[in-house]
Predict the structure.
Amino acid sequence: MVTIDSVLFCLKSFLLGIVEGVTEFLPISSTGHLIVFEELLSFQGSEQYINTYSYVIQLGAILAVMVLYRKKILATLTNLFPKKENGVWVRPYSQTGLRFWITLAIACIPGFIGVLLLGDLADAYLFNAVSVSIVLVLGGVAMILAERFCSKKNAAAPQEGKWLSVTTKQALIIGGFQCLSIIPGMSRSASTIIGGWFAGLSTSASAEFSFFLAIPVMLGMSALKLIQLGGFGSMSTVELISLGIGFVVSFLVALVVVKKFIAFLQKKSMSVFAVYRIVFGLFVLILSLCGVVSVAAA
């Protein structure tokens, strides 16, 4: 039976799906935004539902990247191995999908180690409104400085297809910076784009490599967490419907946002996102000090 409470419950999931779809791949921290909006919307449910929700809607966002980049992903798979014709290499190893996916796997290693060593500590001690607000501000400042001193000298670097030829050294640098995203409020996208700048990539190439890197990282993390949390068996029908709504909305919104984001980066500076982070971070800090959002872990 459809009730007003169940409709409102699903509406909250719809709104949070929009928040996730907009913020997941922008360098503004989806975690920080979800903390605030979940409290503002009085987002509630069973413990299983609350613990599972963010990982499910993250899967919607990552599915959007896989759909948008399906042709490029397919190209790496169809050109997976080196190819020689009449004794001449028409596709050397350096131009194969195998080299790209190995490089991507290498970029995942630092983050994997970082999560194993520090992930639980970060969740226990830094997953709160005050910490997130401070990290949002500091991350915004870091973006401004990194763009000023690193990205401008990379502006003349080739952009189209550059993500395909990222070197092992560049992958390790980007993967190392990705470890910063373990800190709630830093943003995985911001961390990897800054890492791309330090590795010598243009902003556009850094963002695209960041999107590809998100596929194994987010799929693996979300799948592992969902397995650890025990799946969906104990949830009510309304909660399952709400999860589906959040997943679909996050997917659809992320489809639009990622496409627009890449077009934006090819023409504009990242400073607008850095300034937004600082303003939003101060806003979250004010809300927490006024008791609108809790200081304790969300």
